[in-house]
Amino acid sequence: MGESFGRWTLGDDEAMLDIVTSANVACGFHAGDPEGILATLTAAQAKGVVVGAHPAYRDLAGFGRRNLDASPKELYGDVLYQLGAIAGLARSIGAEVRYVKPHGALYNTIAYDEKHAPAVIDAIGSFDESLVVMGLAGSPFVEKAKAAGLTTVQEAFADRASTPGGELVSRREPGSVLHDTALVAERMVRLVQEGVIEAIDGTIVPVEADSICVHSDSPGAVEIARAVRDALVGAGVELRSFAA
């Protein structure tokens, strides 16, 4: 959330904050400006939603969804800078950033990468080792962060298709983003109850997840998030933030 920029409005943060328990808030490098980020932080605080930093590659034009060949030293500084920016904005209103979830291409790269993952982990640990670190369920990044002494949370995606190996299907591929609200809700109930997700080829993949993500910029995002929440609650699942 917090991804609007100047006159460009993206996502319905107010509506989403009535549904979710945690909000990944942009830090300005892939989207968002200080005014909008602060507004999202303020709204989240008013609605009792836990906020996390959503740092990205320095890629405003590409919305953080392009891989950048930054040096580990450069990436370390970029992540540290973003954490400092959002923490300062949150502190100004008496709020607190509780966790970190890298965004877009950075998230996907560090899931299995040996070059950029340590830089991100080091930056988080240097800034505040009490921050919870979120990563793709089953990925080596989660294990690396845990080995570094950080508290980790594994994440699954409601509105994205998975490969048989548990990775996210590239957005360049057809069917990578899911739009059928009923199907998405059914998949997430099955994830919670059975610990599996059906991959794009029909393979049943075991997934151990602590959190479910819905992208606020996807068409119908609010309806998808509401359908997932209603389905989980209807199945008797108690929803709360992992970082509360």
UniProtKB/TrEMBL annotation:
EC nos: 3.5.2.9
Keyword ATP-binding recorded: yes
Gene Ontology molecular function terms on file: 5-oxoprolinase (ATP-hydrolyzing) activity; ATP binding
CDD domains: LamB_YcsF_like (cd10787)
Reactions the enzyme catalyzes: 5-oxo-L-proline + ATP + 2 H2O = L-glutamate + ADP + phosphate + H(+)
GO biological process, one term: carbohydrate metabolic process
Pfam families xrefs: LamB_YcsF
Keywords, comma-separated and alphabetical: ATP-binding, Hydrolase, Nucleotide-binding
Role of this protein: Catalyzes the cleavage of 5-oxoproline to form L-glutamate coupled to the hydrolysis of ATP to ADP and inorganic phosphate.
Subunit structure, interactors included: Forms a complex composed of PxpA, PxpB and PxpC.
Homology family: Belongs to the LamB/PxpA family.
PANTHER family hit by this protein: 5-OXOPROLINASE SUBUNIT A, UNCHARACTERIZED PROTEIN YBGL-RELATED
Protein name, per record: 5-oxoprolinase subunit A
Species of origin: Microbacterium sediminis
Lineage, highest ranks first: Bacteria, Bacillati, Actinomycetota, Actinomycetes, Micrococcales
